[in-house]
Amino acid sequence: MSDQAAKGMTVAEFLVWQTGQEDKYELVNGRPFAMTGARLRHDRVTGNAFSEVRRQLRANGSPCDAFTSDIGILTVPGQLRRPDVSVLCPPFDEESMTSDSPRLVVEVLSESTEQIDRLVKLDEYKTLETLDYIVFADPTRVEVGVWFRDSGGVWRNQTFQQADSVIHMPGLGLSISVAALYERVTLTPRPRPRLVWDDADEAAPPINTRTP
């Protein structure tokens, strides 16, 4: 790692530094952290999520669009995350490599970073005023956690564990089937620690009236 990276960088300095790297990095507390390599099943779920979200947005005539982890999401000051999929809406700056106003972020979990994703990143994403939906998909089992703002702006969550379930995101005009996310994915469930939101009410559908 360069001396500049070791001593800490601003977001602008990081973006210049990142252009000279072969791997993708996130910026955390001013320091770059390499993103771990993805297993095939992780990449399948990521690709399924991206293609399904983009297909529905375009079919619905939405001005919004889906983006990959190439676009960094600015969360708390000095932090840049790279969700596997994000949805951004106009106005667009075609020259920008970052956004601080996503409407949806999707993280496909990796074993080595799962706790960071489910705890640290979740809290960071919740600070974004424009964000309506946060999705975490486990590539080893049928399990999709969805966080959404209710009509009062309070964050709620649901967990989907059935392939025939459909994740409705009315604020973006999306209805994503869980089966579509796991198409051609070979599942190999592994144990994970129980989390505080596992007992949350899963009965009510997401409520969101904001439109693109």
Could you name the key traits of this structure?
212 residues, alpha+beta, tt1808, chain A, 2 domains, six-stranded mixed β-sheet, three-stranded mixed β-sheet, 5 helices, 13 strands, 25% strand
Fold and architecture overview:
- This protein has two domains: 1-34, no CATH class; 39-199, tt1808, chain A.
- The N and C termini lie far apart (41 Å).
- Helices cover 24% and strands 25% of the residues.
- The protein is built from five helices and 13 strands.
- The protein has 212 residues and is of the alpha+beta class.
- It has helices at residues 3-7, 11-18, 40-59, 114-126, 178-181, and strands at residues 25-28, 31-34, 65-67, 72-74, 80-81, 85-88, 98-99, 104-108, 133-137, 144-149, 155-160, 166-169, 174-177.
- The strands form four sheets. It has a six-stranded mixed sheet with strand order 3-6-8-9-10-11, sandwiched between helices. The chain has a three-stranded mixed sheet with strand order 5-4-7, with no helix packed on it. The protein has a two-stranded antiparallel ribbon with strand order 1-2.
- The model is unreliable at 201-209 (pLDDT under 50).
